[in-house]
Amino acid sequence: MEFKNTKGIFLQIADSISEKVVEGKYPPGEKIPSVRDLAAEMGVNPNTVMRTYSELQTREIIDNKRGVGYYVSADAVEIIRKWKRKEFFEIELPLIVRQTRILDITLDELKPYFESPINSNPHENQ
Amino acid sequence: MIQIKDLHFAYPRQQALFNSLSVHLEAGSITGLLGKNGAGKTSLLKLLTGLLHPVSGELSVMDHQPRKREVSLLNDIYMVPEEFFFPSISIRDYVKAYTPFYPRFDHELLDRILIEFELGNERKLQRLSHGQKKKFLIAFALATRCRLLVLDEPTNGLDIPSKALFRKILAGSLDEDQLVLISTHQVKDVENLIDKIIILDNGEVIFHQTIQEISQKVAFISGTSEEREEAIYSEAVPGGYRLMIPNGLEETEVDIELLFNAITNGHKIG
User: Fold this and answer.
1) Which of A45, A109, B74, B257 is deepest in the core (most CB within 10 A)?
2) What's the gap between Cα A65 and its chain centre?
């Protein structure tokens, strides 16, 4: 029962850049790598990276300063959170719900996982 | 950059390989040329580079007819063949002897790639392993900065780290006015590197689309036998099925092997 599928590569790259923005590795106002540099770093087609950058630009996560490069926008973190939350409720959560129904997992069983501190797994302590 | 129309080609005393081949290619792409054994991939590459001559039809590369072998075309084309022979000289001497043919040759790029591939200038070409020779040829090809680069099975013979290195170097050293045509069976090696796929089958181009077009039309997922019902094409794998389905919610990674098998088995994705 495998429901998770691999996202298109241009979306994977968008996710990894977004993650770095949210984690503070690329703070607002920071310049991100050029299309060519990122393509070379990952061994990915430059046109694919270009597509990622246009997507991030459309979402106003990065700005293109003509002739200079791409910069993280001021509201990037907020925009990414909103985008990822929407994705969570529309794509990821339905899969989890489906899986819990198939496996007969109740809300009560899940509760400890949400109440315990991050990085600890109640399952291991049972 | 490449225009082929109604190309007819046959080897002497043999059935025609191409009866009416047509394809049009522009610069700014790394295109994967796929096809079964004997589909004519290498023959097509040789026609493009003037090593074979068409029987009839139109074939132009950068507004030249390759069969005329004009210098102004040949100094802008580089082909890395599957099989090759080197004289018994050092890398340095080879570079000195062959770079004058390529006006855009970039020595700095060559040195950078040779260092990445761990190939010293003093090494004798004939003493290198097959994989090392291949890496030298790829380095030389990229450094020519020719507008048309033709790579026939470039990852054959490369060790595991070199394959990733090959992708990084290629992705990072091209200009937008270049076209790279990669013929290969090792699709995993060029996954994410190519942005366009051409499939050659029975002497014809039966498929020609960008990765973006493909991933917008179809999705590649793992699934159960019930999901198989709605699939355009499916293959059994351990744990279930690999499925090619009409794209719904989100783009997935393109499974080139599955796509290839679907297309060569007569399925269409629109």
Assistant:
1) A45
2) 24
